[in-house]
Design brief:
The complex is a heterodimer of chains A (319) and B (403). With 319 residues, chain A is mainly alpha-helical. Chain A has a domain of 216 residues. Chain A contains eleven helices and four strands; from the N terminus they run ααααβββααααβααα. In chain A, the strands form two sheets. Chain A has a two-stranded antiparallel sheet. In chain A, strands 2-3 form a two-stranded antiparallel ribbon. In chain A, α5 runs antiparallel to α8 and α9 packs across α10. The radius of gyration of chain A is 20 Å and the shape is globular. Chain B is built from 13 helices and 14 strands. The chains are: A mainly alpha (319), B alpha/beta (403). Chains A and B meet through α1, α8, α9 and α10 of A and α8, α9 and α10 of B.
């Protein structure tokens, strides 16, 4: 039973990370019907932005936990967001907008191209920015005193402080998203655009701006995920976005792509299934090597019996 | 729609053709370089990861080979011949390594190759070099199968052109087991990354450890691409091991150690030469303290024979350190150069000397940076020294040298 609770905590914190990234896939898909495969790289760029912020602050190493949690951490999150949101808006402006009326495959392939492009740019050129270390291999992420590498015990279950941060960040972001979508003008404009962009435009909604805000919201959450990833695993590298992006995309589809709550639920379910499968499936099929297999088996089962995903898309399909 | 696809196909075709002709003309240039000049040129290739996670090790290999070649040219070791370096990046990937091997074997000037770093890459590189009779000396492949075949109880040599200057996992794993048992640790969990190197190391370790009276309380695997090891660690922790033996390399081992300690599994992680690198300590942070590694040979810094190598390496002003395999690579290059002294003496061009070079390798014997360099009938080095290292205060230090 201890193992159950331990794996539940492991799974929820891993799932929270997937969910934070998955929101970016789902928001963009809900509005422009584009699967933005470069979103995993936006997450990676966000983590590097947070790292760069730390370097710009003079690479502070020793500090009290109050200074770290209330000074360094917010600064890194904001720095990461500035970088990830700028990169996301640039990709939207330069790569996706010119292809908005092209067949759906064109932006999809473009997204894959941007994904490779961003990885290579970070790999080759991050080290050439004055003061930054070479990014050709993993870089140790700055230690946030009080969170990185710390843990506490509840009975026999070990809870890492970084896991608490990730889950708390997801909770805050979900509340913020609910408020943003349902209570602000921009948010309601997003819902309207996702339901019918042409009518929305006739009603005076600036569709370009709505699309940009969708990219920006996704990128901001991805930056938080990037910081959470850095504190959880202690290292960041230029390839970290690929697998994380793939898993987050799976989470978005699992929950029902286009549905923000679905992305959150899908992420958490995926994380928990991966963790549980390694402990509770007997024999060699339960080895950690098979966890991805079980995650995708679950995806296939959900798609067979509920093609619209766990929560289904709230967005009306306009096809 | 059809027109668009046709256009796309046309563009792809044109791009592909351009790429192909690009390769062709480059190959042409190298061949024209042969004629002209009284001094003939022979090349020693390097196949190692020059970019990516393992580049710290790969660049050390490349520079050490470069140093050996420069020294041979300065001392005019092979009269009438000038040696050149042809380094290729394998990105630690079998497919890329195979392309690098194909490229080197199609260059008529290449007579020998130092590499690879990874045993898994060697498995696809050696079959390409063998039919071309290019001698290959690895400074770092520790997979026993490369010299002794897949069935270690009935060893038979699969590649006559393959030699190595390092000891194998067949020796490294058991040494780790002996060491752990000698310090009173008899419950160990094993984790490996499913690559040839990691799996071989863990298999050899498990056999020796259980034979010595120890118990393997958990045997787990990870995916090399994974970042999150919490599920594996939870399973391992439940088995209450006194140490974790990891088969793999530092890009995964460092984070694994860090996550282990963060999850409250405070036991040392022990690995093979793949984790014996300063980058491991960078990645694991303070969690690395107390972790152990075995590495082939005696520590280079303590060897009297390696002093000359270290001084020359520093004097040459390379940007990257010689890393874990510098001295072995230097010896590997010198082994090839020694064989070339015999084979090139009567050869008219580099390509015709390839088979003679392979034949001359078996009689190579000299005192290198790591000690005596000579090969047995399988192509393995005759010296079987292993050293155990331990991290203290964020640095690898020598714990014990065993042979």
């Amino acid at each position: 039973m201890d193992l159950f609770w331990q794996q539940l905590i492991n799974g929820l914190s891993l799932g929270a990370l997937y969910a934070l990234i998955a929101v970016g896939y789902t928001v963009v898909y809900g509005i422009v019907q584009l699967i933005n495969f470069a979103h995993g790289e936006i997450f990676m760029v966000g983590a590097f932005g947070a790292f760069a912020t730390w370097v710009v602050m003079g690479s502070p190493k020793q500090m009290s936990w109050q200074a770290a949690v209330f000074g360094l951490l917010p600064a890194m999150i904001v720095g990461g967001m500035i970088v990830s949101v700028s990169v996301a808006l640039l990709t939207e402006r330069l790569a996706y907008r010119p292809l908005r009326d092209a067949p759906r495959l064109a932006p999809l392939i473009t997204a894959i191209g941007i994904s490779v492009f961003l990885q290579e740019v970070v790999r080759l050129f991050f080290g050439t920015i004055p003061g930054m270390p070479d990014a050709k291999r993993a870089i140790p992420f700055p230690t946030v005193t009080g969170i990185s590498g710390r843990s506490f015990q509840i009975g026999t279950v070990t809870v890492q402080n970084s896991a608490v941060f990730t889950i708390a960040a997801l909770a805050v972001c979900t509340v913020f998203l609910w408020f943003f979508v349902n209570r602000t003008k921009t948010g309601r404009a997003m819902v309207a655009t996702s339901q019918d962009p042409d009518t929305a435009r006739l009603m005076g909604i600036n569709v370009d701006r709505v699309i940009m805000s969708a990219f920006a919201v996704g990128a901001a959450l991805a930056a938080i995920a990037g910081v959470a990833h850095g504190m959880r695993y202690g290292n960041i590298d230029f390839r970290m976005g690929f697998l994380a992006g793939l898993k987050a995309f799976t989470a978005a589809v699992l929950g029902g792509i286009g549905n923000i709550n679905g992305a959150v639920v899908g992420g958490l379910v995926l994380g928990v299934v991966e963790s549980m499968a390694t402990t509770f499936i007997p024999g060699q099929f339960g080895s950690p090597a098979w966890k991805d297999v079980w995650a995708f088996v679950l995806l296939i089962l959900v798609l067979v019996f509920r093609p619209q995903g766990l929560l289904g898309a709230k967005v009306v399909d306009r096809a | 729609m059809n027109r668009r696809i046709a256009k796309l196909a046309a563009v792809t075709f044109v791009a592909g053709t351009l790429a192909l002709t690009g390769c062709g003309s480059r190959a042409g240039n190298t061949t024209t370089g042969t004629s002209g000049g009284a001094v003939k040129i022979a090349k020693i290739g390097v196949i190692a990861p020059l970019s990516g996670d393992l580049s710290a090790l790969g660049l050390g290999i490349k520079n050490s080979v470069d140093l050996a070649i420069k020294q041979a040219n300065e001392s005019n070791a092979i009269p009438g011949w000038k040696l050149e370096l042809a380094a290729e990046d394998d990105q630690a990937t079998p497919d890329v390594g195979k392309n690098a091997a194909t490229k080197l074997s199609s260059d008529p000037l290449v007579v020998g190759v130092v590499g690879t770093l990874n045993s898994s890459v060697a498995q696809s590189v050696t079959p390409v070099l063998q039919p071309a009779h290019i001698v290959q000396v690895s400074p770092a492949n520790t997979g026993p199968g490369l010299t002794q075949g897949n069935d270690l109880t009935k060893p038979s040599r699969p590649y006559d052109n393959y030699f190595r200057t390092c000891t194998t996992d067949a020796v490294q794993g058991p040494t780790a087991a002996t060491y752990l048992l000698s310090v009173g640790i008899n419950k160990v969990a094993t984790i490996h990354d499913k690559k040839t190197y990691g799996q071989g190391l863990v298999e050899a370790f498990t056999k020796a450890f259980t034979a010595g009276g120890g118990t393997i309380v958990a045997a787990q695997t990870i995916n090399p691409d994974d970042k999150d090891f919490s599920a594996v660690i939870t399973n391992v922790k439940a088995a209450k091991p006194a140490a974790v033996y990891y088969g793999g390399e530092y890009p995964q081992a460092g984070p694994l150690s860090k996550q282990m300690k963060a999850a409250g599994l405070n036991v040392p992680l022990m690995g093979g030469d793949g984790i014996f690198d300063p980058a491991y300590v960078d990645l694991a942070g303070s969690a690395a303290n107390g972790d152990l590694a075995t590495s082939v040979g005696a520590p280079v810094e303590t060897l009297a024979s390696a002093k000359a190598f270290i001084t020359a390496y520093k004097a040459a002003g390379y940007k990257d350190p010689y890393a874990a395999y510098g001295a072995q690579s230097y010896d590997a290059a010198n082994a090839i150069i020694n064989a070339l002294k015999t084979s090139l003496a009567k050869a008219s061009d580099a390509k015709s000397a390839r088979a003679d070079t392979v034949a001359a390798m078996s009689s190579v014997s000299f005192d290198g940076a790591t000690g005596k360099v000579a090969f047995d009938k399988f192509g393995d080095t005759v010296s079987k020294v292993i050293t155990v290292y331990k991290v203290t205060n964020g640095k690898w230090g020598t714990e014990k040298t065993l042979s």
